[in-house]
Amino acid sequence: MSAFTTYTKIKPVLISLPNGQTVYATYSGLVHFSAKFYLSGVLYVPNFQLNLISVSKLTHQLKCTLTFTLTHYIIQDNLTQERIGTVEAIGGWYPVTTLAASSRSKPHNFAPLINCNITDKTLWNYRLGHPSHERLHVLRKQYPFITIDIHHVCDTCSRAKQRKLPFTLSTIATSAIFDLVHFDIWGPCSITSMQGFHYFLTIVDDYSRYTWVILLHNKSEVPPHIINFTVFVQNHFKTNIKTIRTDNGVEFAMSNFYASKGIPHQTSCVETPQQNGIVERKHQHILNVTRALLFQANLPPIFWEFAVNHVVFLINYIPTPLLNSITPHEQLFGKPYDISILKVFGCLCYASTITAHRKKLDDRSTKGIFLGFPQNTKGYIVLNLKFHHIEISRHVIFHEIQFPYKLDIGLPRDPNTLSLPISNAYNSALDFFSDTAPPVKPCASTPAPHAESCASTPAAPPPASLSFDLPANNVSAPASNTAPPPTLSPHAPPGSTSPHFPRRSARPHRQPAYLADFHTATNTVCSRYPIHNYLSYNSLFSNFRNIISSINSHP
Description:
The chain contains 10 helices and 18 strands. By secondary structure, it is α+β, with helices and mostly antiparallel strands. The chain folds into 4 domains: about 5-105, no CATH class; about 125-160, no CATH class; about 180-340, Nucleotidyltransferase, domain 5, CATH 3.30.420; about 405-555, no CATH class. The protein is elongated. Residues about 100-120 and about 410-500 have low confidence and may be disordered.
C-alpha cells in the first residue's frame, strides 16, 4: 500500500485470473510515477506478488500513445506530442519504476502488509483545498502532524489562483518637453455628437502635462493626426518628439513613420492600461468634468463634443499638484494664462446680429448658449436659439447665472427624451418653437375631389440622425403663471385672431364592395402621417402645449 498516494476502501471487486481462480480487491487509489505519469482507480490485490498495468487503461487515462520497440517503449502525449516517459525492456518485460531514488532501479512491487502512514508532504495541500503556505503554517501550529513542502511547485494552485502582479510607482522622470508623449483613444461614445463624432484622441506631454484633444469620427483617422501633431511640435516648439507611448491599438501601428523620425514607439502589454496610466487617468479627469458641465447646464448629451473641448481648455489652465501647483500652460509656454476671459459653460448669452440683411427695426442680438472657445479665433462658440445653428461671434453679452436648458418646474419631462429632430449640420434652419417661425398653413376649406384626408400631399418623414430638445425662448416665465387660452371658434371671420380650422366632410365612410368578404380595419386618421409619430407632447412647454390642446379639442 505504500505505493499509493491516496487510497480508499471499496466494495470488494471480484477478479478472475487466467488459471480459473478468483480473488478480491478491497482497496482502490492513486499511484504517482512522475509529475505527468499517474494512474487512478488502481485496485489493490493482496495475493498478487507483481504489479500489472493495463495498456488500454493507461492510454485512456493519460490520453497518450505508447510506442514499443525491442529495447524500450515511449509514452507520448497525444495533444502536445510531449514525451511523458521512457520504459526500458528487461527480460522481455517492461517494468515501470517510480522516480524515487530507492526504487529507480527495480520494479515497483506492492508490500504484502498494509501501511497507513502516508509520508507525502503535499498530501495535506490537496486535502485542504490548496490553501496558501501562510495558512498551512498556521494550521501546522495547531496540528503538528501536517507536513509542508516549501519547495513544492503546485500546478493546480498556479492555474486556479494566480492574480495580476502589483504595479510599482514609475521612476521615469522626463527633463524636457516632448521627451515622452502619451497617446490614447477614448470611445466609442454611445451618443453621437452634433457633428457625428464618436471618439476623441487624447495627447498628453509627460513633462508639462499639457493636454490636446482631437475629435474623431472613427479610429482610422488617427495616423494623419499623429503625423500632423509631430509637425506641429517641430514648427511651434523647435524640438522633436523623443518617445511616443500608446497601447497596442492597430491605429498606432506606424512603424515606418516612427523609424523615419527616429522616435521609439513604446506600447503597453495586452489588457494592461496601467502601463499607459497617465493618459488613462486623464480620460477619467476629462469625463468627470464633462459630466459636471452638462449636468450644470442641463444640456442634452449630444453636446459632449463641445463640453470635452472646453474641459481640456480648463484643465490646461488649472494648477496641478504634479507640477508643484503650476499650470500645464505655464509649464509648457513659460508664462501664466489670463483666465479672466472664462465664462460659464452652457449659460445664456446674446450675440450681436450681423449688419448685413438687418433692417432698422430688426433685433440687434439673438439668444444663444455659450459652448466654449474656438481654436485660432478670438471669439465665442454660440448655439443660436432663434435659428438653431452654431455660430462664432466676438460681440457677445453673457448672463452666467441663467441656463436656457433648465427645465420648467411645472413640466415633468424625461431628460433622456429626444423628441424634436434637428439636422446634423450646424446651420440648420429648422425653426421649432422660435419667435420667427412661419405659421402653419391650414388645409384649404374646400377639399380636393379625390382627397382622402385634409393633407393633400403626405409630409416627408423627419430626419432620423440626430435630435435634441430645444429650449423655449421665454425661459423666465413659469408654467404656473401661464393663463389658459381662450376658447376659439372653428368658424371665426377672416379678420379675427382665431385660427381657421379646415372643414371636414360629414359623409360616412363605407367599406369598398370588393372587401365585403374580408375583415379589415378602416383608417380613420385624418393625416396619413400623424404628427404624434414624430413629436411628443411631453417635450412641449406650457404655452405651446395649451395651443396644441385647444387645436385638438375641435373636430
